[in-house]
Amino acid sequence: MTGTAAAPARTVTDDIRVVTDGGITEIIFARPAKKNAITNDMYGAIADALEAAEADDGIRAVLIHGEGGDFTAGNDLGDFAQVARGDVPAERHVVRVLKALARFQKPVIAAVEGAAVGIGTTMLLHCDLVYVADDARLSVPFVSLALVPEAASSLLLPLAIGHRRAYEMFALGEVLSGTDAASIQLVNKALPAAEVLPAARAAAARIIRQPIGALKATKALMRNAALIGVVMDSESRVFAERLRSPEAAEAFTAFAQRRAPDFTRVG
Ligand code: COA
């Protein structure tokens, strides 16, 4: 795809690519060696891109996808461990991303291949059209990391798929295939991996021809942005406490040491 970089970003990282072309901004996770796990700088670049896309009347839709066969393995666990040790960055850009997604008025489309872990799945709850690979792996293993749901997913995931299915995903870390996610209407369509990005781009090309005023008004009617914001704030408070818990320290250490966590050692 030919394109020009979007408006100058405040946060500089090579691990997020932003390409704007023909009224569509593509935000691309580009850290394939780490399964596109998202660092604070990457959140900063994503927030910059979302804010720029919302502010620019020439942009009529956003498309999010990942390079290298994965969507994203979620928050960088090294970053989580750092915050858990009290080494908090000057600005936690994830908060900006969540707020931008909660308030975003224009259509957001996602193309998901491979792993979509944690925020990789919860951000899909803020996307308006989601295309996944049949063999994509969607999971929200917050409890396994001694954490709690974020991105208003404690509200939106049960709303989308029911309490028990959502609880199974949160509490047991159940992984949904793309095919299963489509069968329970968590996403629009599951496709062979090679067809996912083309399908998402085709949808983006169609939607930018629709009247943007009506699109924005429809989205505003369909989503209670104020409630979503309130839920995000409550989740963030509990999440921040959990992040500093001995249980979470054990989970992050275990990941770094490539072993299963032993929560019987703590608490
Ligand atoms: N944060 C930081 N690094 C991560 C990461 C994350 N969330 N997910 C994967 N990586 C890194 C691995 O440490 C590994 O790095 P290395 O090659 O330098 O050792 C590399 O990405 C490849 O990951 P690996 O685990 O070898 O790939 P896999 O195909 O066996 O498994 C996953 C893929 C996504 C299932 C697995 O990496 C995983 O469970 N990641 C953690 C997901 C998570 O808990 N995210 C937070 C949610 S809140």
What does it look like?
With 267 residues, this protein is an alpha/beta fold. It has one domain: 2-enoyl-CoA Hydratase, Chain A, domain 1, CATH 3.90.226. Helix content is 45%, strand content 15%. The strands form two sheets. Strands 1-2-3-4-5-7-10 form a seven-stranded mixed β-sheet, sandwiched between helices. β2 and β3 form a beta hairpin. The chain is globular, with a radius of gyration of 18 Å. The relative contact order is 0.13. Coenzyme A is lined by residues 34-35, 37, 73-78, 115, 117-118, 141-142, 145. Coenzyme A (COA) binds at residues 34-35, 37, 73-78, 115, 117-118, 141-142, 145. InterPro entries: ClpP/crotonase-like_dom_sf (IPR029045), ECH/Chromodomain_protein (IPR051053), Enoyl-CoA_hydra/iso (IPR001753). It is found in: Peroxisome. Its main location: other. Keywords: Isomerase, Peroxisome.
Question: What structural class do the secondary elements suggest?
Answer: alpha/beta
Query: Beta fraction of the residues?
Result: 15-25%
Distance separating the two termini = 52 Å
Whole-number total of structural domains:
1
Supply Rg: 18 Å
Low-confidence stretches are: none
Q: Count all strands and give the number.
A: 10
